[in-house]
Amino acid sequence: MLVESDDRFADPHAFLIGTPKAGTTWLASTLSQHPEIALSNPKEPNIIATHKGTFTRSEENPDWDYYDSCFEDEGLRLDASIHSFACPEAPRRISERFENPLFILSLREPVARTFSHWRMIVDTGEAEKNGTDWSDFEVAWKDDRLRCDTMYGSSMRRWLEFFPLSSFFIIGSDAMRSRPIEILREIESFLDLNNHDYDTNMDRHSNSANRRRPISKLGILVRHVFSLIPRFIKGPIVRILQKRDLNIYSAPILSRKVPRLSPQEKHYRLCMPEITKEMDLLTELTGFGTSDWATFPEFSEPTTKNQD
Hints:
By secondary structure, this protein is α/β, with parallel strands linked by helices. It is built from 13 helices and seven strands.
């Protein structure tokens, strides 16, 4: 409900604000199983922030009526627009609209996160569609549209200008992989929810590289046809697919395989001078430990191990 005196949303509201390629797809899908959580539809409305994804930016004010229509179920509303963390306008807009919102922030070792984000954009052809050549990682790293999501300290400083640190649950993606149930219990406590028995299958509820297949020409045609169907008709179909965590466009006939790569030492040497400052600032502001991220891993051969 809206409080008429200041037009602010008073019911419980939570945001999974970021970051891309840090286990957010798995986390949103898993939390959506909880009967007390109403995950937005789509998972990433991208309405409040000026960052509508990796490339798109818009200074238009949020369409709050449309935003409300993205929540079809009763319960704690959860908006999983993960590019919000890097958006300079999102903290102010949320503070003006919502009373006591809560934020879940999933972080990943920053070079690996950036590399994985870059590979996703290259694999899916999104950069090319946006008139950008990101075929070289060094070129992409210089582009703020990739780098901004890795500036953890600077982004956190902006959020803390509007919200207390107690409003944030900060977690590393490695912890979600190593102890998922424990992390989910901590999130339930943070959100003041009852315990739920989750399906925590990482392979199923994720946006990993082996599930991220570039769409084929036939897939593009199918997606275009599906986009022409009115939302009220395709809505039930989309919800069924989301509940079952199915992506029809990853089917072999609608997509193609791509090689899986991980960052090498040269990528760390390129990024770490700036990232080190960001890690130090994040720790100073929040106490979140980043010591495990602060050294160059040793690489000899490209590895297929991936964490998305």
